[in-house]
Amino acid sequence: MFWQRAVQRLGAATTLVYYYLQPGIALVLGAMFVGERIRVTQVIGIMAVFVGVLLAQRAGLQENVPRIAAPVTRRSP
Description:
Blueprint: H1 2-10, H2 12-19, H3 22-33, H4 40-63
Helix pairs in contact: 1-2
């Protein structure tokens, strides 16, 4: 339900970026509730995913910024 609402509000392309955070959330929940051990390779992988999500978000924010050209000045003849 939350996922579909996010797709409606943010759009599919923006919401898809957060899809890649699911393994990290599952890792943390597994450690908390089931007692799974977290390995160093898992932490490195989750950090790489997190950095990728941040970079994708930054790129998306920069694309939406309107670019305004400098005003054109006219010279009198």
